[in-house]
Structure formats: structure tokens, C-alpha cells
Design goal:
Blueprint: E1 6-8, H1 18-23, E2 32-34, H2 44-53, E3 61-63, H3 85-88, E4 95-97, E5 104-109, H4 111-114, E6 122-124, E7 132-133, E8 146-148, E9 176-178, H5 188-200, E10 206-208, E11 234-236, H6 248-256, E12 262-264, E13 284-286, H7 295-306, E14 313-315, E15 337-339, E16 361-363, H8 375-378, E17 385-387, H9 398-406, E18 413-415, E19 421-422, H10 428-436, E20 448-450, H11 463-497, H12 499-524, E21 530-534, H13 538-548, E22 568-570, E23 576-580
Parallel strand pairs: 1-2, 2-3, 3-4, 4-6, 5-7, 6-8, 8-9, 9-10, 10-11, 11-12, 12-13, 13-14, 14-15, 15-16, 16-17, 17-18, 19-20
Antiparallel strand pairs: 21-23, 22-23
């Protein structure tokens, strides 16, 4: 057992007996011990004290999470200086983790309890329900580098962590403090404490103030005193209620933190970021889930981003942007990562990213883009990840597919699912590419939208489309053409064989048609012949009687008596009369 280096006794209770605790003294090489969520015991102070007094000298990490469930919390169960005395004597103990151990220190982290851990480098006290940290409690941590106080109830008016009465900086190596989920607001008290936080720990480089209740940025200098630059390089205000990052407050922050590289303010209600242009050394700007598209600030916001020439990482996800100026990113020659997802973009300029040679990730997901321009790939040879899923793209043309497979050697991660792709037969090249390429992520989620027959069917397994386009459809066309040719031949042969019968039938039909037409015409006529003559001319009258009527319809009207005709009508000229026959 002496060779054991790591031991996990979580969710157990046997070691709370006196003999079990002494057993740990024989584990001389033990460096990591986990005592998470241990079973309940009744003599918590004595048992814990016995346990800690029997730990070997080589222990480096002690994890004792979720002790709040191990005993009924009362004054006798709160860890005291006496209880922790054995731990403080371990020369190699570097990491102490009491995460989720509610009220294990009571509600106040007292100087007398925590003092003495001179060699600790990491102290995890998140979610311990601390409401106050006694002034000067951290003075003894000469080697402390990271301190996590997330999820406590450190109201700003009682938050005296860093020795406000101590006039000299501690000069400790503490470089990371996590104060998220601590209920901190941005009143005057916290502004005061923020100044002392930086003054007390001049080596601090990471400060996490996310998930609090801050409506404005704290001021990081004391009124009436000269500005003292800090070494902060990483600052997080995510999930607060910040609205404006402009004015003197932001300019003062950037002046106090001249080396600020990473600024995070995700999930606020920010409409204005005009003041960030004074943070000249910014390399990462995380500003997702805000309201930068607010009309009266939009132009100023975009101009501010344009001036941050050293940016390598820019996240503008979910800001309601419907367009991007073509020159927005031209000065960011070092940009490697760009997130523009969850906006309202419908298109982008083909040269928008032409001056960003180091760009490796582009995220255009969840927008309204209809056409993806392949020129973007040609101008970014370092691109490794391209995400254009959940847009309105119907076609990725052959030039895109060809460039991705033949020339974009670095591009290995592509997301296109969630688009309404056209899967008609003319787009079989796309279906083949989806099936063959290894560069697509979630290829099985890529679905067709047209034709309606294949809607919501995955492109990845498209044997049905291939059969229809390559086999069934050509076969149907061939059969149709063959049927037309066969029918034409049959008609031609039959026509030649029965040509005389057909001609006879045609003649008979024509004759019957003409007869019917004549009968119809005759039925529609009021008379056969109308003869107009001069009644005073004997010559005319004799010619009509002797010559004309004799030859009309075989002399049918030869015996007619002109004097008895009653159908005379007046002529067009004087002395002219007409008669109808």
C-alpha cells in the first residue's frame, strides 16, 4: 500500500473510524486524496481533526467537495484552526479544494482559520455560501496563484477581501481571481474594493466578475489618487446587466489595464462599445448575445471594432446584425477566429475577408444567407473551419466543391447542415461529395428541401435519388421515346396497307361534307336568282324570257308568267325592277 499515489475515498465513510484514519499514515507516497461527498458522521470535528492529522507529508492535493451533505451543519461542525492544524503542517500541500461544501467555514472565512497555508498555490472555495471574507484573511497565502470564490454570497457592502486597511501591496504571486455568481453589484462600495483588489495583488492577471448584478463598470482607481497600472490581461464581465461600454469609465479601465488582451462581456444588454477603442492591446473581444445593432449606436460600434487592429479573436454572435461593412476587418491582419452566428445576415461582400490571411475559423451559422461566395475560401488559405449551417443556401456550386477538395488543403471542418438544399438530378455532384468527403461535420444531418419527393430526407444516404436520376428517369425517357417510334411505325405501315380504303373513305367523307355544306347554304337562302331589268325595255324582257330562264336549272322557270309574279322589288335605278326566283 505504500506505493499508492492517488486515493479516492469519495462516497464512503469507513475512514472516519480512528483506525481507518491512522491507516493513511502508512501511505507514504500518497499525493492526491479525494474525500468528496462522504457519508454522514456524528463527531465531525474530532473525526476531521484525526483525519487531517494523519495525512502524510507528501500530499499535494486534497479534494473535499460537497461536505455539506456529510453532517448536520452546526457550530461544532464548522472547521476551525484546530481542525485544520494538521493540514497546515503539510509542507507539500499545494491545492486545497472545498467546492460545494456549504458553510464548512460558517458564513465568514476568518483569518484565524485560513491563516497558515503558506505553500498553497490553488484555493477552491466556490459555492461555500460565504457572505464575507475577513479583512486580511489572505495575507498568509505567500504562494497563492489562483483563488476561486464563485457562487458565494459576497454582497459588495461586506466584501472586504483584500486588506483595505493595509497600506502596502502584498506582492503575492496571485494571478487569477474568480468572483462569478457572487451577487456583486456595481455600487460605490464595490468600486472601492475593485481598486484595493488591484492594489493588493499587483501580479493579478486574470479577474473574473461574470454572472453578477453589475449595471455599470466599476472604477478601478481611487478618487483623488493617481492612476496605478495593473497587470490584468484577462477580464470577464459576462452575464451581467451592462448596457454601455463607453465614456470615462471604459477609458479609465483601459488606462489602468494597459496590457489587457482578453475582454469578455457576453450575454449582457450592451448597445454601445465606443470606449473599447482605447484598449489598444486587445487581442480577443467576446461580445456575443448583446444588442450592438441598435440603430443609433451601430455605426459607432462598427467603427470601434475597425480600430482594434490587434484582434485575433472576435465574437459578434447574436447581436441582430443584418449587414457587415466590406472594410470592417481589413485592418485586422492577425485575425484568426471570427464568429458572426445567430445574426440576420443575408449576404457578405466577396472581399470582406480578403486581408485576413491568418483566419482559421469562420462561423456564419444561423443567418439568412442564400448564396455562399467561393471567393472567400480563395482569399483565406489558412482556413481550417467553416460553419455555414442553418442558413437559406440551396446550392453549393461545383466550384465550391472542387476548391474544397482540391485546393483548400487546410480546410478540414465544414458545417452545412440545416440548409434547404436542392437535390434535383442536376445536383448529383453535391450528393456524391456529401457521401465521399471526410471534411463535413454531421454529414448525416444534411437534408434535401427540393424536390418535394425527397424533402427532409438525408443527402448522406441518397441511393433513392441516385436510382431515380441515374436509372429510373433515363429508363422512363427511353421507354417513352421507343413507344412513340413504335406507334409511328405502326401507323405508317397500316396507312400504306389500307391506303386505297383510306382514300375512298376520304373522298366519301369530303363529298358528304360538301353536300352537307350545300344543303346548309341552300336552307339559308331566300331565293335562287334575282333578276333586275328595265321594264320599259322590250329587248331586256325578251332576253330574260327567251334566253336566260330557258337555261336556268334545265328550263325549270321557262313557263313562269312575268305578269303574275308578286315578288318584284324596286331597283336601284329609275324604271328598274327586280324579281326573285
Amino acid at each position: 500500500m505504500s506505493q499508492i499515489r492517488q486515493l479516492n475515498l469519495s462516497d464512503t465513510g469507513f475512514f472516519y473510524s480512528k483506525h481507518a484514519s491512522k491507516m493513511l499514515t502508512h501511505l507514504t507516497n500518497l499525493t492526491i486524496l479525494s474525500l468528496n461527498h462522504v457519508s454522514p458522521y456524528t463527531k465531525c470535528p474530532a473525526s476531521a481533526q484525526d483525519l487531517f492529522n494523519n495525512l502524510n507529508q507528501n500530499l499535494v492535493l486534497l479534494q473535499a467537495r460537497r461536505w455539506r451533505t456529510t453532517f448536520e451543519v452546526n457550530e461544532s461542525c464548522i472547521l476551525t484552526n484546530k481542525t485544520l492544524y494538521g493540514l497546515k503542517q503539510l509542507p507539500n500541500l499545494k491545492i486545497l479544494d472545498f467546492k460545494y461544501s456549504d458553510q464548512i467555514f460558517g458564513n465568514v472565512l476568518r483569518k484565524s482559520v485560513i491563516h497558515g497555508f503558506n505553500n498553497l498555490t490553488n484555493l477552491e472555495l466556490s459555492w461555500c455560501r460565504l457572505t464575507r471574507i475577513e479583512d486580511g484573511a489572505l495575507i498568509g497565502f505567500r504562494q497563492l496563484k489562483t483563488l476561486n470564490l464563485e457562487g458565494n454570497q459576497l454582497a459588495s457592502r461586506e466584501f472586504w477581501v483584500y486588506g483595505k486597511n493595509n497600506s502596502n501591496p502584498y506582492s503575492y504571486p496571485l494571478w487569477a481571481v474568480e468572483l462569478q455568481h457572487c451577487g456583486i453589484d456595481s455600487d460605490e462600495t464595490f468600486t472601492y474594493n475593485a481598486y484595493y483588489l488591484l492594489r493588493s495583488f499587483p501580479n493579478l492577471t486574470i479577474l473574473d466578475l461574470s454572472r453578477n448584478q453589475m449595471f455599470t463598470l466599476p472604477l478601478f482607481k481611487e478618487t483623488g489618487k493617481p492612476l496605478t497600472p495593473s497587470n490584468i490581461t484577462w477580464l470577464d464581465f459576462s452575464v451581467n446587466q451592462l448596457k454601455h461600454l463607453s465614456g470615462d469609465g471604459v477609458k479609465e479601465m483601459c488606462a489602468v489595464m494597459p496590457n489587457l488582451k482578453i475582454f469578455r462581456a457576453n450575454d449582457n444588454v450592451i448597445v454601445d462599445i465606443g470606449g473599447l477603442e482605447t484598449c489598444k492591446e486587445l487581442e480577443e473581444l467576446h461580445i456575443m448575445i448583446n444588442q450592438l445593432s441598435t440603430s443609433i449606436y451601430l455605426k459607432n460600434n462598427l467603427n470601434t471594432i475597425k480600430k482594434l487592429h490587434k484582434l485575433t479573436y472576435l465574437d459578434l454572435t447574436e447581436n441582430g446584425l443584418d449587414s457587415i461593412p466590406s472594410d470592417l476587418f481589413q485592418g485586422m491582419v492577425n485575425l484568426t477566429t471570427l464568429y458572426l452566428a445567430n445574426n440576420k445576415l443575408t449576404t457578405f461582400d466577396r472581399n470582406m475577408l480578403s486581408q485576413n490571411p491568418h483566419l482559421s475559423l469562420i462561423d456564419f451559422s444561423v443567418n439568412k444567407i442564400q448564396v455562399f461566395n467561393t471567393s472567400l475560401l480563395k482569399s483565406n488559405p489558412a482556413l481550417t473551419q467553416l460553419w455555414i449551417s442553418d442558413n437559406l443556401i440551396e446550392i453549393l456550386n461545383e466550384s465550391f466543391v472542387d476548391f474544397v477538395e482540391r485546393k483548400a488543403k487546410n480546410l478540414v471542418n465544414i458545417r452545412v447542415d440545416g440548409n434547404p438544399f436542392d437535390c434535383t438530378c442536376g445536383k448529383l455532384y453535391f450528393q456524391r461529395w456529401v457521401n465521399a468527403t471526410k471534411k463535413l461535420v454531421d454529414a448525416k444531418k444534411i437534408e434535401c428541401d427540393t424536390p418535394a419527393l425527397f424533402r427532409y430526407n438525408p443527402v448522406y444516404n441518397y441511393t433513392e435519388s441516385f436510382y431515380i436520376c441515374q436509372v429510373q428517369l433515363p429508363l422512363e425517357i427511353f421507354c417513352t421515346i421507343a413507344a412513340v417510334i413504335a406507334l409511328s411505325i405502326l401507323i405508317s405501315v397500316s396507312s400504306y396497307r389500307y391506303r386505297w380504303y383510306i382514300r375512298h373513305a376520304r373522298v366519301v367523307f369530303r363529298a358528304m361534307s360538301d353536300r352537307a355544306k350545300d344543303m346548309k347554304t341552300e336552307d339559308e337562302c331566300d331565293y335562287d336568282v334575282m333578276i333586275c331589268l328595265n321594264e320599259n325595255s322590250d329587248h331586256d324582257l325578251n332576253w330574260v324570257k327567251d334566253d336566260l330562264l330557258v337555261n336556268i336549272e334545265g328550263g325549270r322557270y321557262n313557263s313562269m308568267n312575268f305578269d303574275e309574279l308578286d315578288d318584284r322589288v324596286s331597283g336601284m335605278m329609275e324604271n328598274q325592277h327586280c324579281l326573285k326566283i
